[in-house]
Please model this.
Amino acid sequence: MTDEFDGMYETFKALLDAFPPSEAVKRLEMLGVKPEIVQEIRERHEQQTIRIKELEEPHAVVLGNRDTWYTGPQDKDKCWPAIVELLRKDGWSDEPAIRNLDDSSTRVVSLLNHPKEKSFSTRGLVVGYVQSGKTTNFTSVMAKAADRGYKLFIVLAGIHNGLRRQTQARLVQQLVEPNPSLWSQLTGLDKDFTPHENPAAYFGKSNKTHVLCVVKKNATVLRKLAQWLEKAADYLQDCPALIIDDEADQATVATKSINPLILNIMSSLPRSAYVGYTASPFANLLIDPSAQDLYPRDFVVNLPKPEGHFGTEVLFGRYALDGEDPEQVDDGYDMIRSVPDDDVPCVRPETRADVEGFEPVITDTLRRAVEYFWLTTAARRVRRRGNPHSTMLVHTSVNTAVHNSFKRPLEHLLKRAGESLADAGFVSRLRDLWEEETARVPAEDFGEKKVAFDDLVPELPGVLRSCRVIMDNSSSEDRLDYENGPVVAIAVGGNTLSRGLTLEGLSVSYFVRAVSAYDTLLQMGRWFGFRNGYADLPRIWMTDELAEWFRHLATVETEMRRDIDIYMTEAETPLTFAVRLRTHPALRVTAAAKMRDAVTAASSYGGKRVQTHYFRTDADWLRGNITAARDLVSASRSHAVRIEDRSSEGRYVIRGVPHDVVTDFLAAYKFHDKSPENDADLIIGYIQKRIKAADSLRRWNVAIVGNPKGEPFELAPGISVGLNSRARLAVSNPDPNFADIKTLMSRRDAAVDLDGDTAKLTERGIMDKRRELLPDTGLLVLYPIDKVSTPDPTKKLRAPLNAEEHVIGVGLVFPEPSHGDSTVEKYISANLSALRIEDEDYSPLVEGDEEA
Model:
């Protein structure tokens, strides 16, 4: 029976190449296979599909009960095994890394339709990380889809020639060259799509090859492709097609030229799957789900962060999310260097009128960045492993004339450095720079060994001789070319360097470009990715404002991915979930045109924890908040049901305080205007709506949390606690009165008014306990903070608070509403008029294509 079953299961697998699973089972029945064997085959196939659906990673939100026909690679496959072999040759000796790629690409293919279904039009989105191997993932998806019978593969590769060429080269190397007899190409390394005379040569029944087409998102090119496919309509009825949209948030969403052309191409393909890939899916998740557009209605897959990947959070740190223990949220590595605001006009014209004739000045920070780049390149040569290329990115403007103006001063700096290697003063300055940088980021923290300065000096002449200054932009002939031996390059550029293109061996970035949207900003971060063999060496020079924006963005990104994972476990579908994107006072989520269908985010505080982490440090502002806090404690004590003195722990809990005492305090207390989530009007309005709608939040508990070892601070006669210490993040902000302490509350504090042992409760456990014991009671916690607050010596990225008066921090914990929620709606819109913003340049979308 076992032999008979095994034989029939192999027959079933062969039938799956020609039929979807339900149809393949019918064929077995028509062949007269015994019912019990058919049932066993069904069960084994179901077990294999369950394994794929229940993979721990990647998480996915899926529409309906999609028929999982794909259960992984088979022995007869040719395209996927070729990729595995190439990856091993490229140094992927780590089996878990290959297994993770296998699992994540299998999950995506399992969400496509079976290629032999009569018609389908799938829409999916895969969310990865910037520079995290998304190309390898979609190449693997294409390989597996090809192994199962998908015929036409269209890859939309950004809007610039550089990325299109890089993508074409990768796909040819990994798909075409290992199996040349299996593939035909509609595009080449130096040629975007041009119409071919005879569609039958590609799509006719006699041609069994897969067809590869890698095109830019350029209106001229896509129009030619759409028209050619229309002419080939007779041959496309039986042509399963997979469209991969790389950088799917760019140019695809809400563009009058590109979006309709992509939809037009799909309308020519009766069997087509569209899968967008992006690290910044903000725009894609704001498309109107009900429109006939590219909203990922069938699935959203959240790729896991690969081992060893440098992402936003790793470099910049982030703020704690609801439910996280602040002590476990990292500040990031000490790799960000501050560019003073006074330097910015030296490297970027202040107005459009200043562009013509602009001459950049090599400031001290830019010179240090360049010199450090040469040192780090020399150190990597001493180590003799990892990526052979070494690149520095200089990105100050979108304007090509500005890029070109850097060539002469940077080449002059390079020439002078070459002449100065015999100068003891110059070498001494380099030694000081190297010792300072390697002390701030110890190599041992990354499993590396520090390269001694004397060991790297002999490499410097060769580094300087091989270093080139390259202007990589849409108007220059120069291009970063990593295909012909090791490169050492200082690359100056704008949009051509900021989307998808991999800057090989990127170790130093000098970045002062002002951008207005999350997605644009995130994509500018070419420094994200893998740094094998030199993880201790990368540095980024940028303004403090940009560093704060990236820290905020790391928080948005983490929260968005967490939302996707939560929806996955709550049986939501892509059509019923709406990822929340928290706002920022100076940044848009994405371009305004891409947000036309977005609804106003409803600010619901139900079940949330709100806390202050931005403060001013000037005396008048702080005194006002101390007065507001003392008034609150006095009024609370007068109206309280009970006061619990836990001063031995540095705590007081005042129970049963009327809501108007709390709202009076919120009206008097000054929140920092950089904190949109701490909006007194919004919070007061929310409390009033909850009282009116559900008679909830009428009573509050007010807690005071201090440090028993701190200097005593009196909030009312007989109520005194020790001052807390909260050091600020060590950034030289242009506003001397600004401090960011990053996190105020601990998880334990959210349970300060709960009875019993709460020490081991998770955040979820605390909220459950609050719902059980205090379902309608809010909690307000006051934190008196020492004005000096010297940091722990181990916290390298922290500095003393150094405020002019003691600081009052505020935390609020809102109960979860039992019957829906009253929400307070309010647009939090930035006034961008004072910022000099450069948006992405979309002219390549509509200009005639120079390659075609």
In short: Confidence is low (pLDDT under 50) at residues 590-603, 824-842. The longest strand covers residues 120-127. Residues 544-569 form the longest helix (26 residues). The two ends are 61 Å apart (CA to CA).
